[in-house]
Amino acid sequence: MAEEKKQDIPSKKEAEQEIDLIELAQKLWSERRLILKVCGVAVVVALVVAFSIPKEYSTTVTLAPEISSRSNSSMGALAAMAGINLRNASGEDALSPELYPDIVSSTPFMLDLFNVRVKSQDSKIDTTLYNYMEKHQRSPWWGTVTSLPFKAIGWVMSLFKDDENEESGGNGGEEGGTISLTEAEDGIVGAIKGRITVSVDKKSGVTTLTVLMQDPLISATVTDTVMHNLQNYITDYRTNKARHDLAFTEQLYKEAKADYEKAQQEYADFVDSNQNIIRRSVMVEQERLQNEMNLTYQVYTQVAQQLQMAKAKVQEITPVYTVVQPATVPLRAAKPSKMLILVGFVFLAGVGCSCWILFLRDLVKEWRRPSV
Description:
Elements: H1 2-30, H2 32-52, E1 57-65, H3 73-81, H4 100-104, H5 107-111, E2 117-119, E3 126-128, H6 129-135, H7 141-158, E4 173-175, E5 178-180, H8 183-194, E6 196-200, E7 207-213, H9 216-238, H10 240-273, H11 280-317, E8 321-325, H12 338-368
Antiparallel strand pairs: 1-7, 1-8, 2-3, 4-5, 6-7
């Protein structure tokens, strides 16, 4: 008998829970008109919000860098399986692909983009990237409303400032290795930086570059420019020492060539001016000039060989990138997702209204009820 009573207890609790759920469902069903009205208002608000947000177009490029095979291939394969990159373990190259996002987001790299010419797809905008980010960015209407007080405060504060710190036109400034930016330039740097994303696959070294802009053609243009600037930066870094050696060798080559031509000319002038003269001193001087000409010729030929080797070295260490996915003009906007905004607003409105009907409304009534 005791066991039967114990079994009856949970069954009663389950029945009470079922009854409670049914009551909640009936309560929501009785207020279905209110829920539908709230969801309808949410639909209208969602559409207003979705169509007020400016469209954003995304362009993505993929680069596959050249990988050196001088390291141990078996160890490299095992490390790649574990998600570890050993390409830099030998210290051959300090500029690893993992540093590419930091390079692109650096201030000097951003400043190089200021004067890039961009043109909108409808040809209404044809200016520099700096002016485009400063004057041609659209924002939702509520952003303009909320920013009015701050603009008013900034305008009042500008009345008490000197006119010495004027904008430099989007070129930045460098003094003694330091970079000096105005407030406007610093804001544009941050705005451009926030629209560029660089990710690197640690296993394969494949670099993915994505740029988000409010115009499809400008998005593709900036993406292509950033890709080429990154390639040039990496190439300049890796070939810096070899290019300096090449310049030094070219200078030696010019000097050796000039010395050889000078010695050759001196020998020829001496021979022409001392023909048919049989004197020991003349023969000794002629032999000395000839030996000097031969010596300068040997130096000249050796430096010429070194020059060719230096040129080959620069070509050898110049990295080659394979553009897996080039920059193409996007056809559809990446943001905003109107359907996602609509579903989110309706869902939140439905949940909020249901919570109000089931719990909050009764609590508010009890709170407003005067105490006896």
